[in-house]
Amino acid sequence: MNKPLAVLLFVILIFPSTNSFAQKTDKNLQAKIKDLLKGFHGEVGVYVHDLKKNKTVSINADSIFPTASMIKIPILIGIMDKIEKGELQYHQPLIYKDSLLYAGEDILGSFKNDEKIEMSKVMMLMLTMSDNTASLWLQTLAGTGTRINELMDSLGMKVTRVNSRTPGRQANQAGYGWGQTTPYEMATLMGKIVKGDIINKEASAKMLRLLGRNYWDEEAISQIPTDVFIASKSGAVDESRNEVLFVNGKHCRYIFCICTNHNQDQSWEHNNEAWELTRKLSKMLWSRYN
């Protein structure tokens, strides 16, 4: 064997092509999920990533959907970026003002004017309770929707954006509400947090812990055993129900996001069609990976 050929073979053996580590479609699972989605009365997109085998399922995963409260993950990233830069502090005291109220049933909105609360507790309310008054306050503290959108762009998120209270995005807000994303991008954003790739490993770990304390556990989370760590964020408005989860079980690690829009069933009962679909998908994935 001549020397150049021997060197080439050595390089191939020691440094295999990155394509060998590329994600592959789980065709069997994709077919099963497609069957599950048939007949849904609305638009639906799903992205699944098996982190152990690096296999994926992508069904309408690049279509744009309203985020509803899933936009609170980008807001969280905006706040953590400010904290890491020393512009905010995790435990700093804040003063609640009546002008911050977003009408609804939020906990923070029941505070009296000039009451004190720590930044960390406002963040907890945003993620655990999905408190909208807390979320909009944090969006402002993060430096406006424009700055959060710039952070999303820097992370490779080309579609995930804050629309509400963000200059120049009125048309997007009319179509998608508070925020917009794709199942692929929201799952990818969760994946970056899991891997420690957002800001730094310590900040990502803090965000993952915060996302692991979700009060709203009756849909996708309900199909997973209670001793399994789950980081998640859901979102719901009348015609759109969404959820993104990272599931870290003994024998599995996976992320999935399901987004729906223009749903015919806009009820708020447990048997809402989109919520039933979400539970069925979550149960299917847990059974599949275990």
TrEMBL record:
SUPFAM superfamilies found in the cross-reference section: beta-lactamase/transpeptidase-like
Q: Which UniProt keywords are listed?
A: Hydrolase, Signal
Q: Which protein is depicted?
A: beta-lactamase
The segment(s) forming the Beta-lactamase class A catalytic domain are 45-260
Residue ranges the record marks as coiled coil = none
BP-aspect Gene Ontology terms = beta-lactam antibiotic catabolic process; response to antibiotic
| Species name | Ginsengibacter hankyongi
- MF terms per GO, please? beta-lactamase activity
> Where is the organism placed in the taxonomic lineage, from the top?
Bacteria, Pseudomonadati, Bacteroidota, Chitinophagia, Chitinophagales
